[in-house]
Amino acid sequence: MKEKELINQAIAASKKAYAPYSNFLVGAALLLENGEIIQGCNIENASFGLTNCAERTALFTAIAAGHKRFKKLAIYVDRPAFTAPCGACRQVIHELAPGIEIMLVNNRGEIKRTSDQELLPFSFGSADLES
Ligand code: THU
Fold first, then answer.
1. Which of 53, 59, 78, 104 to mutate to test ligand 1, by most ligand atoms within 8 A of the CB atom?
2. Among 3, 33, 36, 55, which one carries the catalytic annotation?
3. In this structure, which of 28, 38, 62, 129 has its CB flanked by the most CB atoms within 10 Å?
4. What integer is the mean pLDDT of 99-116?
5. Closest C-alpha to ligand 1, atom 10
6. 33 in catalytic set
7. pLDDT grade for 1, boundaries at 50, 70 and 90
8. Strand 37-41 to strand 26-32: parallel, antiparallel, or no bridges (unpaired)?
9. What digits encode the pLDDT tens for the residues 23-49?
10. Is 24 in the pocket of ligand 1 (CB under 6 A)?
11. How confident is the model at residue 59 (pLDDT cuts 50, 70, 90)?
12. DSSP output for 30-56
């Protein structure tokens, strides 16, 4: 089943995280409309502000590979709490994957379902730049 596979890939992605400063390992798995899955992990830097979150890594990797249509994003952290995307990632998700389904997955195998609209209501976006 695609959802189970998506979660497994988010878990696998979290193990690839480069997070020596926070030790907070985040994995993301992005399901494309064509059924492919693209992984992302957080990548930190000694200059902390340059850190890239797992969600943006997955989306940027997908865009750079020429993909434009996304169905679902799973986000995993090896903790009992659900980890929701940060504000910067919410803005990027809104731009690149509006309407995407988002699954937050904890280390108990539980899923919290949310969406771009729920995470970023009353948002700023490309339409605001028109006219
Ligand atoms: N982080 C993510 O990758 N995604 C999130 O949804 C929350 C935060 C990363 C950024 C940083 O490397 C570490 O987690 C701690 O903030």
1. 53
2. 55
3. 28
4. 97
5. 53
6. no
7. low
8. antiparallel
9. 999 999 999 999 999 999 999 999 999
10. yes
11. very high
12. EEETTS-EEEEE-B--SSGGG-B-HHH
